[in-house]
Design a protein that fits this description.
Elements lengths: L2 H8 L3 E2 L2 E2 L1 E4 L6 H6 L5 H36 L8 E9 L5 E9 L2 H13 L12 E9 L10
Antiparallel strand pairs: 1-2, 3-6, 4-5, 4-6
Amino acid sequence: MSRRAVAALSLITLLSGCAVSNVNTSPGPSTQAVQNASVVTPQDRILHSYMMQVNQIVAGQVGRIRAEQERTAMKQAGHPVTLPTGACRAVAVILANGTVERAELAGCASEALGKIELAAIHAASPLPPTPFGHNASVTLETVAPDATPGIGEQ
């Protein structure tokens, strides 16, 4: 499946009741800042678009990891289980070719979510190449909301 298809699918990610959404793609202009700014350069728009795309890809990976964790935990417990919830932020250094060189947590609701966030970032590598052919440092933030145990199970 192409990276574009993955990015498109991640927009509607709802796996096993675990919706994961992108909240922020700092650094760079936020959506509100882009709309309110009197002068936004084409380069700013390209960078913002890239950060949103990367965040959506990682959010999709977080959703897939959480769905698998939920299925495994439900099989072991024999009944619906709850997963950790909350927001998690990480900074990823992405090489010009899209390879994730490293990722570090910059704040997370729990250690378990932090492990999921880092695993998702590395699983998403290689990401699309960075714009303008330079390495990039991107802040990613995903939210793991309350799951609805058992949704999507057969």
